[in-house]
Structure formats: structure tokens, C-alpha cells
Amino acid sequence: MGIKAKARLDKKTKQLINRLEAGDIAIIDHDDIDEVAANSLVEKKVSAIINCGKSISGRYPNLGPTIISESNIPIFDVTQGNLFELLKEGDIIEIVDDNVIINHQIICEMVFLSKEKIETALALAEKNIEVELEKFIENTLVYANKEKGLILGNLNIPPIKTKMEKKHVLVVVRGQNYREDLMTILSYIKEVRPVLIGVDGGGDALLEFGFIPDIIVGDMDSVSDDCLKKCKEIIVHGYLDGTAPGMGRIENLGLSGLVFSAAGTSEDIAMLIAYDKGADLIVAVGTHSNMIDFLEKGRKGMSSTFLVRMKVGSKLVDARGVSKLYKNNIKPKYIILLVIAALIPITMVMLISKPIQNLFKLLNIRIRMILGL
Questions:
Q1: Which CATH architecture has domain 2-120?
Q2: The whole model's pTM is what?
Q3: Is 322 exposed, middle or buried (0-12, 13-18, 19+ CB in 10 A)?
Q4: Domain residue spans in the chain?
Q5: Among 8, 173, 306, 373, which one has the highest count of C-beta atoms within 10 angstroms of its own C-beta?
Q6: In this structure, CATH architecture of domain 149-325
Q7: pLDDT at 81 over 80
């Protein structure tokens, strides 16, 4: 195998995505590559992916490497050599067999993750899922006790300008299947016109479908400058001690925002904002709702999400579930039967209507005249 291309590298995959161009070799440091990261890399049409981390650690069956492999993009795990010390952005490197070469020198040894190796690693990970599940449940319960302020309402929610009372609110996270979810509810968005909240990159997901977010909520590490400039209001997710690193970026762009300091994920606080401001219904797109989702985000439990979903409970609808329901298209036979049913009354009217009968007689005479009959 021989691939020669420009190297682009970043230890944070979501930051690298914004700099990648088609044909580049993406160098990452990403344990257990998740579906969202994999799909983003595939969309960039990179020529190869070199991972300085473990693409499949064996903790749980992550599907990212499978997605990459099925897209015919070669993926390698580094076994020897520190590419982040040896390379800089834009270096032209060559992959020959399982080696990285620059200036005719081997600087790194790797292992190619073939389809067979990926399947074997995932099979082993499947056996470990019960152990990981036990740890996950324990962490969830421990942190649920620490973060119970989320459900008891002991939060200082900033004064939001956007009105949500008695309105529908759409919370969009750029998570798994977000495109399918948004496609499913496009008519709902256009007809109901809910308040649109993008959670970090979820703001760009809304722009992708032609909608401008009313609010962007998050730590501001994966949303584009363009989206931040277009949205109507910005809420920066801060730490419990009051610090909010994401606010620096907002200020550098010459924009203003509010800080919401709270435990949990940014999607959690987006739902809390909607609930606190009197939303009639909260529709979630691309959000994290199961153990694999959270493990892929590097979280050891889902205490905050568990508590938040308990709190907003009756007002929350998961668009992912809706999209699953609507994936079964209407069968052709039902459409044919519907057309036949519609034609029956039309046919009856034609049979008993004198004007229509006369029209057919005139058409018959006209046709006979044209044909000379």
C-alpha cells in the first residue's frame, strides 16, 4: 500500500475536521473512534487516517472504525513513533506498507486495521460490555447524588431574551443520525416554527438545512464562526466555579453572550433552559440517550442526562424515535388502493352526469371525423 499526501494533525478530531481537505492524510489521537467522528472524516474524503490512539480499545463495541473501513478509507493505529512531535501541519508524508515515511526516512510504524481485524476487536469488545455497563451504572448513581441540584431546580439560569413560553423548542445536537432526524421533521419545523436551539455543532446542522438558530448553547469548541455570527443569542456553558473558557472565543469574534454555569452536558442545559422558560414541548434531535452514546463521548456515566430527562419528562419528545417510526415508507399497494378508492366516486359521477355523457359523445364524434370513419 502506498499513499502520498499532505498531513493534517490534531489531537482533537472535531477541531481537525474543519481544516481537512479531500485527499489529506488525517492524523488523530482518538481512543475508540465514535460514529460522529468517523462520519465526519469520511465526508472529508481523506486518503487515509492514522490514529495515535487505539481505534478500538476493547471497552465497548464502537462502530467508528467499521464506518471508515466500509468507506474504503485505510485506517492505521500507530505502534511506534510520536507523529505529533515529528510532524507539523502540511508536511508531505508517504505511507508504505505499515510505515510512515518523510524525506526517505521511516518515522513511524503502524498496524493496518483490516476488516477482519476490526471485526475480531469488536467481538472481544462485545464480551466486555457487561463489565463496562456495571461501571457505567455505578458512576451514574454516584454522580446523580452529586448533581441532584439539576432536578431540584437550584440553578441560576441566565436571563434569556428569546421567548419560549407556550412554544415548541427544538434542541439539535450534531450526533448520530441527526440528518435523518431533521429530514423526518422538516415539515414540522416549517409549519410549527419552533424555537431553534443548536448545541455547539448542532447550530451548523440547522444552517445545513437552511435554518438560523435562535440560540447556540455549548462550550463553543465545535461550532463555526459563521454560525455564531448568524445566530440570535449565545449561551456559553461554564464550569461550576464560574469560569467559561468558551467566552474567550465569543469575545474575540466581537460578539456577546451569557454564561450558564452548570454540571452535565451542554445538551442537558439546553433542555433545562427550554423547560425553565415555559416551553410547551421540547423536541430533541441527535441527542445522547444510551450507554454507547455516552461512552463514545468519553463520559463514564449519564447522571445529569438521567436527572434532566426526569425533570423535563412529559415535555420531551426524541426525534430519533420519530425518525425510526417513519423509516417504513408507505407500501405501493396502499397507494394503488387509495387511488382506486378515489376514482370510484369520480367514475360514478361520470356515469350519471348528463353533461359529462354529452361531452364524451362529442369527443367520440370528433375522433370519428378525424379518422374519417
A1: Alpha-Beta Barrel (3.20)
A2: 0.67
A3: middle
A4: 2-120, 149-325, 334-371
A5: 173
A6: 3-Layer(aba) Sandwich (3.40)
A7: yes
